[in-house]
Amino acid sequence: MTSSNQLDIVPSNPSDPSHGVGSVGVDLTAAYRDSNIDSLLDELDRELVGLAPVKMRIREIAALLLVARLREAKGLTTERPTLHMSFTGRPGTGKTTVALRIAKILHQLGYIRKGHLVVATRDDLVGQYVGHTAPKTKEVLKRAMGGVLFIDEAYYLYRPENERDYGPEAIEMLLQIMETQRDDLVVVLAGYQERMETFFHSNPGFHSRIAHHLDFPDYQLDELMAIGDLMLGQQQYALDADARRVFAQYLERRMHQPHFANARSVRNAIDRAKLRQANRLVRQGGTVARDELARIDAEDIRQSRVFAEEESAGRRVGGSRSDSNGHAPERDVAKGPPGTVDPPARRPADPPRSR
Ligand SMILES: Nc1ncnc2c1ncn2[C@@H]1O[C@H](COP(=O)(O)OP(=O)(O)O)[C@@H](O)[C@H]1O
Ligand SMILES: [Mg+2]
User: What whole-number distance in Å separates Cα of residue 33 and Cα of residue 61?
Assistant: First the structure.
């Protein structure tokens, strides 16, 4: 189960009389270095903006797991630590992204064979007819073995209001696997915090099998800006000073509108700005300089519906009050090209999906 770059603690010398009883020290620094875990943790720090409490917890968990390995090598009793987790937070706060990183870290530390992530929702696990649920859940579990199974909006598995619901079948299977295959599968249950709490309350079996609860807070404006810069940089785009100012104004408005989905909304906004930039350049024609291809102008952002709505809302104050809906647009394409719909994220206030 160890590949060359996985943690491979050198066992103490068997001819040493103290072998196995742990009186010979282990070089923790060397073990840490050899595990290569530091580079993954640094990557996590560098490539994800904010999330300080989450990052700290992950470092703690990594330390715990490293020490557990060292204890094992020294013959000290070590139960395999429970690794199932719950990630609570609103859409776009980085839960899936962090799960991917954790899968890599657990693999690096030799706790899972493959280190891949399988994302599943209720639809992947629960069937609509008798006898459909078990094979569906089995198939997902099979794919996830040796890695991390991320169950998004896990509470949809439990729908007591539906008399003939097959969710409990999937729940049974998951609970069993989480117990018996602890050394080959790590399960992460994710979703809105309040709903997860309710879910755990009605399904204490899950709660008791989870070792680590990580909460993902909403991002602040400056963090959203930093996330935008990071994403743009990765794609070799940049905002000029004017565009930065307008982008900050955009985010400030967008944050307070319905369906705002944190970093995902930033990514969507950038995608739309790229479309507008491309359209602008094509309309403009002629020769385009390299830096023009890389630059997002203020205009590319200002054309967003988020600003259009603001203007029309402003007009309404002094004029017609016919539209009192006050709903923010789900699309941000007033003047942009088609096909740039920001898929609305569900909010805590939304009723559960009816499936
Ligand atoms: N802290 C962060 N720094 C940089 N990018 C982030 C951060 N959090 C989320 N993202 C990006 O935002 C998008 C949505 O994140 P995701 O992990 O899918 O959120 P969630 O699973 O909580 O809905 C992804 O493209 C991800 O790369
Ligand atoms: Mg997600």
Answer: 16
| Closest C-alpha to 212, from 79, 99, 77, 96 | 99
**Domain positions in the chain:** 83-216, 221-318
At CA 276, angle to CA 270 and CA 281, rounded to 5? 125
Spell 122-148 as b/e; 16+ CB within 10 A means b: bebbbbeeeeebeebbeebbeebbbbb
Cβ 227 under 6 angstroms from ligand 1? yes
Q: Does ligand 1 have an atom closer than 6 angstroms to the CB of 51?
A: yes
Residue range 93-132, pLDDT digits in tens? 999 999 999 999 999 999 999 999 999 999 999 999 999 9
Residue 55 CB–ligand 1 contact under 6 Å: no
**How many CB atoms within 10 Å of residue 313?**
12
pTM value?
0.82
Asked whether the domain spanning 221-318 has the same topology as the one spanning 83-216, the reply is no
Quick one: tokens of 353?
């999906």
> Judging by beta carbons within 10 Å of its beta carbon (0-12, 13-18, 19+), is residue 115 exposed, middle or buried?
buried
Query: What class is the 83-216 domain?
Result: alpha beta
Rounded-to-integer distance, Cα 280 and Cα 38, Å: 44
Cα–Cα distance for residue pair 270/263, rounded to 1 Å: 11
